[in-house]
Amino acid sequence: MGREVPVARRVFLKTASVLGAGLAVPALAQPASERPKEGDLLVANGVEPAVPLEPKDIPRDGRPLLAWPMEPTAKVVRSGSRLNKVLLIRLDPATLVGPTRERAADGVVAYSAICPHAGCEVDLWSAEQKMLECSCHYSHYDPRNGAAVLDGPTPQPLAALPLKLAEGKLVVAKPFTARVGIVPT
Predict the structure, then answer these.
(1) Where are the domains positioned within the chain?
(2) 3-state secondary structure string across the chain
(3) CA 19, 20, 25, 27 torsion: positive or negative?
(4) First-to-last CA distance in the chain?
(5) Hey, which residues does 88 pair with through a beta bridge?
(6) Are 147 and 158 in contact (CB under 8 A)?
(7) Looking at the domain covering 41-172, what would its CATH class be?
(8) Separation CA 148–CA 138 (nearest Å)
(9) What pLDDT tens digit does each residue of the chain (185 aa) get?
(10) How far apart are CA 160 and CA 142, in angstroms?
């Protein structure tokens, strides 16, 4: 009789682990939560219906526009994870430095909206200095130079999202250049 309880328990645990794994796998593979992929279009945050953005939709030297990547065929907006939120800034292409120039599309640069210091949203813009700021701990970033850290506690620049133009629309050229979200120090 002592053997029946452990066998039943083992069967229960094995069944539960298989069922649990079966439930977890689809949750990880949801297209709306996947990171931006090459060929994804960019759409404005909070605008319905989702319309692919063009460079002219982002005001030059103006406040960054929050956007989401959208899978172009199924039109799935990848808004299932806050880590997919993107800042779009349109700058004078002549002011872009180094790799930033190569990652830009008609002066539009894209960066993760999530600060690598504590995971807050980078939500402030200094128009005079053309500088991004995280309002949680006041890290400052230079969008013309790869979102390089100007000051503050952040350990690294914002992850860049390389762009290209296709039929006049802003399109993801490559995945994020670095880890998005909190970066362990």
Answers:
(1) 1-30, 41-172
(2) CCCHHHHHHHHHHHHHHHHHHHHHHHHHCCCCCCCCCCCCEEEECCCCCCCECCHHHCCECCCCEEEEEEECCCCEECCCCHHHCEEEEECCHHHCCCHHHHHCECCEEEEECECCCCCCEEEEEECCCCEEEECCCCCEEEHHHCCEEEECCCCCCCCECCEEEECCEEEECCCCCCCCCCCCC
(3) positive
(4) 54
(5) 65, 110
(6) yes
(7) mainly beta
(8) 14
(9) 444 445 555 555 555 555 454 444 444 558 999 999 999 999 999 999 999 999 999 999 999 999 999 999 999 999 999 999 999 999 999 999 999 999 999 999 999 999 999 999 999 999 999 999 999 999 999 999 999 999 999 989 999 999 999 999 999 999 999 999 998 87
(10) 12
Residues in the chain: 185
Token pair for 3? 């053997």
